[in-house]
Design goal:
This protein has 124 residues and is mainly alpha-helical. The chain contains six helices and two strands; from the N terminus they run αααββααα. β1 and β2 form a beta hairpin. α1 crosses α2, α1 crosses α4 and α4 crosses α5.
């Protein structure tokens, strides 16, 4: 399974939920993303089969090292982009929504430059 934008969103969601609660279940992902249980189950099975997540006997979902690496990368992009947009004067909700759209398509070169510029702005 290629790591598509949809898969990145699932992995990022699992990471976010795991920071907020001790265990992540499929229903938590459904609630967070607003997707149906069958849809989430299909994607989780594919992510499990490709080594991005594990699911234990109690149906606790955990990111593998590979899945966590992708999730942290996307989450960092989301966080930095949101902060940058807010530094530009964009309202918080709009900044977060726009960051979610941009985080998947921005090049590594552009993101690195933007991250560094954001650090400088915050230091001023």
């Amino acid at each position: 399974m290629p790591v598509t934008e949809a898969v990145e969103n699932y992995l990022e969601t699992i990471l976010i939920l795991s920071k907020k609660q001790p265990d992540v279940h499929a229903i938590d992902i459904c609630s967070y993303l607003g997707y149906s249980r069958p849809t989430v189950s299909i994607v989780l099975k594919k992510m499990k089969d490709t080594g991005l997540v594990t699911v234990d006997a109690d149906n606790h979902i955990t990111l593998t090292d590979k899945g966590k690496s992708v999730a942290e990368h996307v989450y960092e992009r989301h966080t930095v982009l949101s902060e940058f947009f807010m530094l530009l004067g964009v309202k918080r909700d709009t900044a977060i929504d726009d960051a979610c759209k941009v985080e998947h398509d921005i090049s590594e070169e552009t993101f690195s430059a933007l991250r560094e510029h954001c650090r400088k702005l915050k230091a001023e």
